[in-house]
Design a protein that fits this description.
about 140 residues, alpha+beta, about 20% strand, rod-shaped
Length: about 140
Amino acid sequence: MCATYREESGFTLVEMMIVLVLISILSAMATVTLGNSSHRAYVAAMQSDLRNVATAQEAYIEQTFAETGSATYANNVNKLAVNLSSGVTIRMRANANGWTARAMHQRVSGARCAVFRGNVNPFPPATDEGKIECD
């Protein structure tokens, strides 16, 4: 009798399971990386908007001084010519000696950025005048 051997091609169940596990691990790593990227993008949008507010405040104080003879800071972002990024809200306080602003993004819970100029009680996390700080 002559024995014939039949070669089968394909993958075993164990090999397929190993591939699925590796794909799952890579997928999880990519999800975490993309999540961190979007968080950094939202924080960058808040920082950009605060820089624009700081520039607009300087223009606003120059304009009010030219018009009224006294320098006044804007206490509301609506008084400034600033277009905010989508999802960013700015809260401001001002007095005769300075101003402070805090930015928050609707898609980032707990993260906020702030800046201040002059003699004013700053919004946290701002501690150094003129420096945008985030937590």
